Amino acid sequence: MQNLDLATIIPIVFGALVLLIAFLIIVNRIFVNVGAREIAIKERRYLGAKMPPGRVVATEGEVGIQADVLKPGLHLIKFPFERVVRKVPLIEIGADEMGIIEAVDGEPMQTGRIFAPDRAQNAHNNFQDPIAFIKQGGVKGIQLRTLPPGLWPIHPYLFRVSVAKATMIPQGKVGVITAADGDPLDAGRLLGKAIADHRQFQDAEQFIASRGQKGPQVDILTPGVYRILVQSTSIENNSEVKPGLFNVRLFDATVINENSIGLVEALDGAPLNPRDYVAESFAGHDNFQDGHEFIGKGGQRGPQKDILLPGTYYINPLLFKVIPETAKEIKPGEVAVVVSNVGRDPSEEVRREMAEKVRQRMEREEKEQIEESSARLDVMDDKRTVEEIKLDLMMGDPADRRLDEGAHEAYVVPEGYRGIQEAVVGPGRYYVNTLAISPIVIPTTNQTVEWTAGEVANTFNPFEVISKDGFTMQLEVRVVFRVKPEDAPFMVAKIGGIERLIQNVMHPLIDSIFRNQASESSAMAYLQNRHEEQERAEARVRAHLLKYHVDVVNVLICHIHLPEELMKTQTEKILAEQRQNMYNAQREAEEKRIQLEKTRAHADNQKDLMAATVGVEIAGKRAEQRKSEGEGEAHYILQTGRAEAEKVRLMGEAQGVAYHEQVNALGAQGVALVETLKVIGEKGVRITPDVMATGSGAEGGGGIGTLLLLNLFRDRLNIPGPNGEKVTR
């Protein structure tokens, strides 16, 4: 050993190193260590068959990329025939994700399909066994089976992996599903039929295997997290987007507020019977939240009889249209007439029974009305009006007489039948389906309709009427009426409601009645007989509105506006009458004053009269004395007195006749004035006083002043009275 020199040792060492390196190379090619979070892809280079056309990976030892992968650990390679060409990391699917697999090799996809079913029935163990996938008939394309969260050794040459986030439906939302693949929709349907066991669309394979249909789906997603085959993003290329089997759209949940209801209309389902307004209700659809149950049990398309009460509902908006509506509030003093769109059609027998009820009620009310109207109108002594009212009431409405013949479109029917319900609904709050039943609110308290210039409800313009004498009058009228609760359904059957009653019946009726009455009387007579005209009109209105099951409380003529020219004439006439009355009153007062003055003058002259009486007695005694003194002298005196008396009498009679003629011509005051002026002229008396007060009378004015002046002159001039007596003051 000592004899070995350096030249000998170096080649030996070099050769050993070469052998070592060669050994390491060979060992490295034969043994492959795969890390814990990766896999290795190997390729066969020699001694193998050629892969069939279109095949991507070799499953039978063919030359090319091998289907099986090397998982974490130490592996022996058939070097130099095989080699590791690539190590790739494991596919990691996060907790809120899912892996979407697209196979680039396998059996061709069925024509018309977009997504590949798992024919291998997961023999490939979630795509971890590529050979099993190929040999079990795996189909090329995007797979319906997905990868749950975890680490997966997926062959990168056979499978492309994309990741989709889990679908989250928040509170207060619903997820509406549209399928991109599946069977075609049934004819006439808008939504794909419900499929069982697809676990809320999380089992795409089951959806397709159960003949799930393409398009919008009946089933929906309620709040929660779902792993659904939706649109995904490629792991290898973040910009590459892969389509999903399902598309999820978020909609607001249906919320029905307090004091409201939800009216539901089905947009899909079995066809509705042409005679029906709404679909019959049935149990099991959970307030329309279970579309599967609704369609499966033959739910009908169109308005639904069932309603939604206040609350939150997760309803498919593509299947059901929900219309919120305020609950019906019937206030005190009101009733609701119910018009039912559901129930049995009334038979001829039912219609005849209701017609008989109507006739009996009308006959009873007509009899009472005839008696009342006759009694009221008889007082007015208007027999023609009474007969008209009686005739109107007894004839009734022809439509009512045809009720039993089927002439009405609207019938009052008992409960359970389609039509206007005989029973009314009293005050309260009601959650009713207005698609199935229509409540018509009718006030039962007194209602007022006015034909005035005011701005109140139920007001029309005043009536313009023409009187018999051709004057145009304007009438302001008020009508108060009520509908009894038991009469409300029949009133609705006749006319439809209060508004129609007022607009289509009362307004033209009352207009006609007042026009006709006004044309029968002069304007002033109509004004003077206002109360009688009001009573007559009320009787006629009662008779006509009774046919519509309406009770008239009263009819009032509030105001009658006469034309200006007629009012001017009447004003002048009234003023003239007032002036005449004033003149008559003044004349009467003057006559009373004169009589009073005469009474006073007579009282003032009582002393003189008494003295004259005594004087007469004394003269009588003296005459007796003279008689006793001598018959001759007495006889002489008697004859002389008689002659003088006869003279005076004759002169007095002549003067009286003349004075009477003057009085007839001029009046007593006029004669006195003439005599006064005659004396004034003869004696030259000053007649203008320093102060004079006179009357202000217009016609015949100055009577008081004239009399005062006359009496003054009589006192100053000693003018005799009308009969020649001297007046003493």
Task: Give the key terms.
729 residues, alpha+beta, 5 domains, 5-stranded antiparallel β-sheet, 16 helices, 38% helix, 24% strand, rod-shaped
Could you explain how this protein is built, in words?
The chain is α+β, with helices and mostly antiparallel strands. The protein folds into five domains: 21-88, no CATH class; 90-252, no CATH class; 254-326, no CATH class; 348-562, Tetrahydropterin Synthase, Chain A (2-Layer Sandwich); 657-729, no CATH class. Helix content is 38%, strand content 24%. The protein is built from 16 helices and 33 strands. The chain has a five-stranded antiparallel sheet with strand order 8-7-10-15-16, with no helix packed on it. The chain starts with 5 loop residues before the first helix and ends in a 12-residue tail after the last helix.
Shape field = rod-shaped
Number of helical segments with 4 or more residues: 16
- The helicity comes to 25-40%
Structural class: alpha+beta
Q: CATH homologous superfamily of the largest domain - what is it? A: Band 7 domain
How many strands, which pairing sense, and closed or not: the largest β-sheet? 5 strands, antiparallel
Rounded to an integer, what's the Rg over CA atoms?
Answer: 63 Å
Number of strands: 33
Assign the CATH architecture of the largest domain: 2-Layer Sandwich
Classify the fold: give the CATH topology of the largest domain: Tetrahydropterin Synthase, Chain A
The CATH class of the largest domain, by name, is Alpha Beta
Instruction: Give the overall average pLDDT.
Output: 80
Going across the biggest sheet, name each strand in turn. Answer: 8-7-10-15-16
Amino- and carboxy-terminal Cα gap:
208 Å
Relative strand content: 15-25%
Count of distinct structural domains: 5
